[in-house]
Amino acid sequence: MPDIGTVLSTIVSGMLLGGMLALTALGLSIVLGVMRLVNLAHGDFLVAGAYAGLFFLKITGVDPLLGLPVIAFFVAALAFPLYRLLLAPLAERGAEAQMMTMFAVSIILENAFVLGFSADTRSIERDYATLPLTLGPVTVPLIYVIGFAIAVTLILAVHWLISRTRFGRDLRASAIDAQAAETLGVDVKRVQMVTFALGAACAGVGGTLIGAAFQFGPSSGAAYLLNSLAIVVLGGLGNVLGTLVGGLLLGFLQSLGGLTLGDGYRDLVGMALFLLVLAFRPDGFLARRRS
Predict the structure, then answer these.
(1) Cα dihedral value 233, 235, 237, 241, nearest 10
(2) For 187-204, what is each residue's pLDDT tens digit?
(3) How far is residue 100's CA from residue 88's CA, in Å, rounded to a whole number?
(4) Is the pLDDT of residue 291 over 50?
(5) How far is CA 133 from each of CA 129, 145, 251, rounded to the nearest angstrom?
(6) 8 Å CB contact between 207 and 45
(7) Looking at residue 122, what DSSP letter applies?
């Protein structure tokens, strides 16, 4: 049996990691809420953010966490032409055609990563990435704490954007009823384009944070896409703060699974929970019940 310090450290580490993953899942959630699109290339946007952080460090010598606005802009700029050239023309054919298109984009991006960076795993090497932070019996990696703080700050910023601004009002109206919103003067296509880019930016920033904590490679996106889907289902579709809670919950349960079953079963616990919630609460475990 592990000692209490090990148990607490594992659980806290899992929840901090869950908070970082929640930022990535938020991008998937808002795209799904507004466009009704499961973006199967979302994990590849995360990998793009990780590579962008790595090369930002090599080119400028500046810590990529300080360059997150630049990285977010870069990944969002990658998303804009994908929407304009591929998704917008397919809008009338339904989300299925768009989803299959993004599946093809995912394959193309993964192969582009292999051609451009090789199939080798990389990491954003920083001194603080290997430093521990100890508070009483709890010891966690410092990068988890830094990444969690950045992720929560950005999630709260997106919550403010959606709940307090005119764009957020248009986004919420488009998510509820796109046709009615368009009748009332909302430029739904513009809202969808900006939302798609915002979702990609969230994934890119999350990718930089994860790239500073873990190794990554061209095919790493698939695992993070699955985790993001699980968090979206837990937190409720389009629920910004629910996404954060869903990430913390997933991190907590995965850490418990790792403690009781072994580290090899962490992802199994998350996927089992995902299927259970999808079966019994398809709107999300934390989604508001409809009257």
Answers:
(1) -160
(2) 999 999 999 999 999 999
(3) 14
(4) no
(5) 11, 8, 19
(6) yes
(7) B
C-alpha pair distances (Å), 112 with each of 109, 193, 218, 240: 5, 24, 8, 32
Query: How far lies 26's CA from each of 83, 150, 175, in Å?
Result: 18, 14, 15
Residue extents of the structural domains in the chain: 4-280
Domain 4-280: state its class.
Answer: mainly alpha
Q: Are 118 and 210 in contact (CB under 8 A)?
A: no
Please state, in angstroms and as integers, the Cα–Cα distance from residue 82 to each residue in 45, 109, 133, 209, following that order.
Answer: 12, 12, 41, 24
Three-state secondary structure string covering 147-169 = HHHHHHHHHHHHHHHHHHCHHHH
Contact in structure between 65 and 151 (CB atoms under 8 Å): no
pLDDT of residue 136: 85
Q: State the Cα angle at 266 between 213 and 281, rounded to 5°.
A: 110
Residue 135 host element (H or E): strand 132-135
Among 15-29, 125-139, 250-264, which stretch is predicted with the lowest mean pLDDT?
250-264
**Main-chain phi, psi angles of 262, to 5 degrees:** 115, 155
In this structure, of 11-15, 75-79, 276-280, the range with the lowest mean pLDDT score is 276-280
Give, for 32, the enclosing helix (H) or strand (E).
Answer: helix 4-35
The pLDDT, as a whole number, for residue 238 is 74
pTM assigned to the model: 0.91
Of 84-88, 150-154, 177-181, 256-260, the one with minimum mean pLDDT is 256-260
